[in-house]
Write a structure and sequence with these properties.
464 residues, Outer membrane efflux proteins (OEP), 9 helices, elongated
Length: 464
């Protein structure tokens, strides 16, 4: 928000300050006093950033979506555990039958008589040993759950970082809007005051100076529109990120986040401990290799114990007492047996195992460039914080110097030793230094947000 010098005075036509010129400068000072504080908004009862981030973590749809991936992975673990338990089927049939009497040689049929036929069949199989097939699937599911949890935490960190940026941008836009509004108010009053003496024959304000002042005033109005639009958009974005937890978030003054500065090496160690990608990549490789072992184990037999019971009954059919005669209508039979089951699709098993090992190698390749990339990201974020800290100190000094410059120039003008042109140059310098202070404060907080995301844990005093 850089603006041109509002008014340039014709020094040849201005002598000692007249009464109208004094009134003009007092108007500028009064308006400038309205925006002198670094924090341009009162805190009020608005929710703080901690409350907003808690709402984001609890209500954001993208975070909930990632949490459901964890639940899916958890149920996959339960499914792999269930493979160790027995499997069984039970079938119950009931049907009408006409009467037949006799044996395997002689049969008499009476279609006028009917009765029921009930059949019950139960089969149970308990795996005993699978040569690592079940344990491989279980290990793959457990590590996939771990990897999915870390990926969900990575998504959470990304969403939180985005929410912080929206919130800081919202506060910056609100502060800039307020600054523009205050400058516009006193520049508008200055235009009115300058127009009064300009109608007199011996005016201290020349027409072209008044026009420059009006152009600066209109320029500020236009900049105010941009600031308002940015404030409205980012406000809506913050509400969207909270999942509708708030109807409105009043703008507080942009404040510095508190943090304890550590060394770059300490932040790199934090990243190794907290960055989700490290654990996700490691767990993903274990899961893929375990799944490959399980796929390969399909080529080995499965040792199991099985039990079967078959119960059939019908009052319209004669029971056959000989076990060598087929009797599906009146027979109770069953038993327990030890067995082996073998899937003979060896080529498919080998292909599936090779595919999973290739997936594991792909994750290993990702790890080979992701780990140095994360270290670079942490280093870059650390250097941005260092720059932001030093930049904020410079911006704060610049803001104070700009204030002193304008006040000193005004005092000199009031006693007739400072030209009017210098007054307005000081006004521009003070306004730009205040704008720079707000923007630098935003960059300061944004740099800390990037560092928190880079190391995988919060580095400021925020607790959410």
């Amino acid at each position: 928000m850089n603006w041109e010098t509002p008014v340039e005075w014709d020094l040849k036509s201005v002598g000692r300050p007249r009464r109208e010129a004094r009134l003009f400068i007092l108007t500028l000072l009064t308006g400038l006093g309205l925006c002198a504080a670094p924090s341009l908004f009162a805190a009020g009862d608005a929710p703080d950033l901690n409350s907003i981030l808690k709402a984001v973590v609890s209500n954001n749809g993208q975070i909930k979506e990632a949490d459901q991936d964890i639940e899916i992975a958890r149920q996959q673990v339960e499914r792999s555990n269930a493979a160790m338990y027995h499997k069984g089927t039970y079938t119950l049939l009931a049907a009408p039958l006409f009467e037949q009497r006799g044996d395997a040689v002689n049969v008499t049929t009476d279609m006028s008589k009917w009765g029921p036929w009930v059949s019950s069949f139960t089969q149970v199989v308990q795996p005993l040993y699978t040569f690592g097939q079940i344990s491989g699937y279980r290990k793959a599911a457990e590590h996939q759950l771990l990897a999915t949890g870390e990926l969900a935490r990575m998504k959470r960190n990304e969403i939180v970082a985005t929410a912080k940026d929206f919130y800081y941008t919202y506060l910056m836009a609100a502060d800039l809007e307020n600054l523009v509004k205050n400058l516009t108010e006193f520049l508008g009053a200055a235009v009115q005051e300058a127009e009064k003496p300009s109608k007199k024959k011996k005016s201290a304000v020349k027409p072209h100076d008044l026009n420059r002042l009006k152009v600066a005033y209109e320029d500020l109005l236009q900049k105010g529109l941009f600031a308002t639009q940015a404030k409205q958009t980012t406000h809506k974005a913050v509400l969207w990120m909270t999942g509708g937890a708030y109807d409105s978030i009043p703008a507080k003054g942009l404040q510095r986040e508190v943090f304890e500065k550590k060394t770059l090496q300490e932040y790199l160690e934090l990243a190794k401990t907290h960055r989700p990608e490290f654990k996700a990549l490691a767990a993903g490789q274990v899961a893929r290799n375990a799944l490959a072992d399980a796929k390969q184990a399909q080529s080995y037999p499965t040792l199991f114990v099985g039990a079967m019971a078959d119960l059939n009954w019908s009052p319209v059919r004669d029971r056959q007492p000989s076990w060598y005669a087929q009797d599906p209508f009146n027979r109770i039979q069953g038993g327990v047996a030890l067995g082996l089951r073998l899937d003979l699709e060896f080529a498919r098993h080998a292909a599936e195992a090779s595919e999973e090992r290739a997936q594991a190698m792909k994750l290993h390749a990702t790890e080979s460039y992701a780990v140095p990339g994360i270290e670079l990201e942490v280093s870059r974020a650390y250097w941005e914080v260092e720059q932001a800290v030093q930049g904020f100190e410079i911006a704060d000094r610049r803001r104070k110097i700009g204030r002193k410059w304008f006040i000193g120039s005004t005092m000199g003008w009031s006693v007739g030793i400072t030209p009017a042109k210098e007054i307005l140059e000081a006004l521009q310098g003070d306004g730009e230094s205040r704008q720079n202070y707000i923007q630098t404060l935003y960059l300061y907080n944004a740099a800390l947000a990037k560092l928190s995301k880079a190391v995988g844990t919060e580095v400021t005093s925020l607790a959410y």
